[in-house]
Amino acid sequence: MYTYEDYKAAADVIISSGGSRRTALVLGSGMGSLFSDCGRKISYSDIPNFPKPTAPMHRGELIISDKAYIMCGRFHRYEGYTPEQVSFYVRALYLAGVRQIILTNAAGAVNPAFVPGDIALITDHINLSGENPLIGMNEKRFGDRFFDMSEAYSRELRKAAAACADECGIELKEGVYFYMSGPSYETPAEIRAAAALGGDLVGMSTVFECITARHCGMKVLGVSCVTNMACGVKGVSVSAEDVEKTADAAGGRMRCLLGTIIERI
Ligand code: HPA
Predict the structure, then answer these.
(1) What share of the chain is helix, strand, coil (3-state, %, to 5)?
(2) Which of 29, 42, 46, 165 is least enclosed, having the fewest CB within 10 Å?
(3) Any bridge partners for residue 40, and if so which?
């Protein structure tokens, strides 16, 4: 659906607004205002071809800080966007110079050893949605149609993130992210299935962006803020209010961790 020129047009506006950056940070639900004091801002509505975020807590601003592009708000499948639209910005950022991307999100804990408020590095993901942002014609200027996903989330960046967490006094968990489209939260049976299949975290974002980023050779770091136990784990139900409150409460630790990572990588 998009042409190479569509991505290029977005990249050109981003570069002309504040130059090129090698690192991008994407702020997930409840984290959109963590870095609002950190640089020049452009509204997504001023970037050609960017969709409009419609999800609550997704502001729709790109901050151009000294060290990184910071995306305050992303796009989700459940908003009605296609997987290609959801990850449009990844290719635009690639053409603006980005070679490493930090994808953050709010996630439910499938693994009963996690607790709300934990911060977890994503080691791998499971995408059984049957969807993939790269279905369709391959654009060779981004990458080969068939490509390796054996290290979807960079080992090197995880190691760097672990050192930054030590500096901030944060104990990091790690686990496999199980993608579900939402917008309904999962049923207890779906969460038991996710656990049986090896999932530790569940959420409604990140995987399409990770796939698109790996296609063009970017390194990916995935960081989840555990906002709730997933439905049925420890008998709980899930509410958007709890997700928001817990993401808010973890804001200070997320800012220390992500700010330190951006400085070091
Ligand atoms: N499920 C899916 N997405 C989520 C959850 C959850 O429990 N919590 C935050 N995002």
Answers:
(1) 35, 20, 45
(2) 46
(3) 64
Atom 2 of ligand 1: nearest residue by CA position: 203
DSSP 68-83: -EEEE----GGGT--H
Distance in angstroms (rounded) separating the CA atoms of residues 223 and 256: 13
Given the CA of residue 230, which atom of ligand 1 is nearest to it?
A: 7
Distance in angstroms (rounded) separating the CA atoms of residues 182 and 213: 22
3-state secondary structure of 253: helix
Residue 56: its pLDDT value, please?
Answer: 67
Indicate if ligand 1 lies below 6 Å from the C-beta of 204. Answer: yes
Instruction: Give pLDDT, residue 248.
Output: 87
Q: Rounded to an integer, what distance in angstroms lies between the CA atom of residue 21 and that of residue 238?
A: 38
* Closest to 21 in 3D by CA, of 251, 223, 218, 221: 218
What is this structure's pTM? 0.96
Residues 73-106 have pLDDT tens digits of 999 999 999 999 999 999 999 999 999 999 999 9
**Vertex 206: Cα angle to 205 and 212 (nearest 5):** 125
For atom 7 of ligand 1, the residue with the nearest CA is 108
pLDDT tens-digit map of 134-152: 999 999 999 999 999 999 9
Spatial separation of the C-alpha atoms in residues 72 and 189, rounded to whole Å:
33
108's CB contacts (< 8 A; 6+ apart) are 185, 186, 191, 201, 202, 203, 226, 227, 228, 229, 230, 231, 233, 238
Q: How many CA atoms lie within 13 A of 47 on its CB side?
A: 28
Kindly state the tokens that stand for 44.
Answer: 């997504």
